[in-house]
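pasting input
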Amino acid sequence: MIGRSIALELPPGRIRPVVRLPAEVLSRPCDRVDPESDEVVALAADLLATMAVSPGCVGLAANQVGSSLRVFSLNVTGHPKTRTSHGAFVLCNPELVAASRNAKGREGCMSVPDWTGDVKRATRIEVAGTLPGTGEQVVLATDAFEAIAIQHEIDHLDGLLFLDRLPDARALHRRVNYQ
Amino acid sequence: MEFVVTVVSHDRPGLIADVTGAVAALGGNLESSSMTLLQGHFAWTLVVAFDADIEVLRRELLAVCPTGVTVSELADEAEPSTVVGDRIVVNLHGADRRGIVAAITRVLADAGGNIVELSTHLHEGMYLGTAEVEFGQRVDLTALSEALAAAGSDVGVRVTAHREDPDVL
């Protein structure tokens, strides 16, 4: 199922380095933003540009590129576990407004290389937020992989990593680099 | 220098704090460790970085846990490559009998698998186990599952295997 793709008019972004643990910015809640500000529009473009050149990357929170601001980008298009997809988009000040149907999955993170963890997340959600540039307020209903990825990114904005959600001592695993 | 320390003991509150306190007091650094309770017994394996005599470390650890400490120098070997072709989770359960783990792990070894995590439990006659197994290349999961199920049938346990593909978000 294809959700409504979100039209974004953004300037060209620049590729920014992705920070890794133990960078302090990953463990601090991010600040709300003015989605129409030039700074946030540039940040949105940077997130999409950085995601585009990062192999396997489906989402990026602003603090992963060092900006402690409540903005994330996402694009789960083409992923085998995707059902509903809204294409490539950026959301500012996102809030989860509904969540149901929890399921456990194993996830990793660009900012936590070499490790994965078994985490339980809702597979049906509604998320409210504001688009950068236009300031349009949206509510996205989604499921499956896009729902999981959005929750992972909102966790980043709250200063949480998947490591903070491990349910037990056996849920942490070394990450495999597949040939 | 790195040392491997094993601590096997009757469980008691404060044992980990005592061992790590002894390591810290000597200026050592606890790098990695894995601890569990096996049939109620405390079992812990640690890698400790420590720039002093192994006998000093052994003496101080035996002072806090007299019954079951071993200390040995970790061979200076390069960490094996983490580049693998596949990672499979194997689950088994059934009535306990001799040879269950030997039979199942032999199938995995013959298929070229390397077990990287293993946990087995005997409880009231029921045997439970989980293993994570890495392979050098993508495996035929159907064929491996059939081989495991056949070997499990021979020793009276049900064995299933599934691929664990983490999602990098």
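fyi The CA atoms of residues 153 and 167 of chain A lie 19 Å apart.
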